Amino acid sequence: MHTESMPDRKVAEHWIYKREGFRKVDFPTHCSYGPVIEDEPFKWQGVIMGPSYSPYEGGVFFLSIDLPQDYPTKPPTIKFLTKVYHPNIGEDGTIYIDILEEDEWNPVQTIESLLLSICSLLADPNPMDPLNPCCLLFRTDKQKAIEIARDWTRKYAMSD
Q1: Domain segments of the chain as ranges
Q2: 3-state SS record for the chain
Q3: Closest C-alpha among 125, 138, 45, 137 to residue 89
Q4: Which one of 31, 84, 101, 146 counts the least CB within 10 Å of its CB?
Q5: pLDDT in tens, 131-142
Q6: How many CB atoms lie within 10 A of CB 158?
Q7: What order do you get walking across the sheet with 31-35 strand by strand?
Q8: Could you report the per-residue pLDDT of 15-72, keeping only the tens digit for each?
Q9: What residue stretches are annotated with the UBC core domain (predicted)?
Q10: Are 96 and 90 in contact (CB under 8 A)?
């Protein structure tokens, strides 16, 4: 088993924080992100505000962002921690979006650009994805699917 040496880790930490803006303050209005623990450069968390005029409006959605050791050569693993009823988000929070797949990954993507893409996906789902059971409802009874998505947003992504 290979263990990462301290100098390699420090280089990776410096590079990730420089690239992704560890002390960033000028986030887009509807998302933010940062490391979960300052000295752990590969474990981040993101927050997305539900897009206006969508069933997710008013919701606050938390995501885990796990950066691989060879980021940005390989894509991060991003999952919703907040439950979301959406055709492109699995029950376990997995996000079905091509830009996160290894064969579609482009190293110029940043965490910010990925979160913005995920936010756009919330507003404009692709119900043709066969991996998620709610896709069928989005295709056959979109209004009912939107009602369920709104209910889940109120239940899981809004404070009382």
Answers
A1: 6-156
A2: CCCCCHHHHHHHHHHHHHHHCCCCCCCCCCEEEEECCCCCCCEEEEEEECCCCCCCCCCEEEEEEECCCCCCCCCCEEEECCCCCECCECCCCEECCHHHCCCCCCCCCCHHHHHHHHHHHHHCCCCCCCCCCHHHHHHHCHHHHHHHHHHHHHHHCCCC
A3: 125
A4: 101
A5: 688 999 999 999
A6: 11
A7: 31-35, 43-49, 60-66, 77-80
A8: 565 555 555 555 567 788 888 887 788 899 999 999 999 999 999 999 999 999 888 8
A9: 11-158
A10: yes
Cα–Cα distance for residue pair 37/44, rounded to 1 Å:
8
The CATH number given to 6-156 is 3.10.110.10
Tell me the C-alpha distance between 2 and 51, whole Å: 42
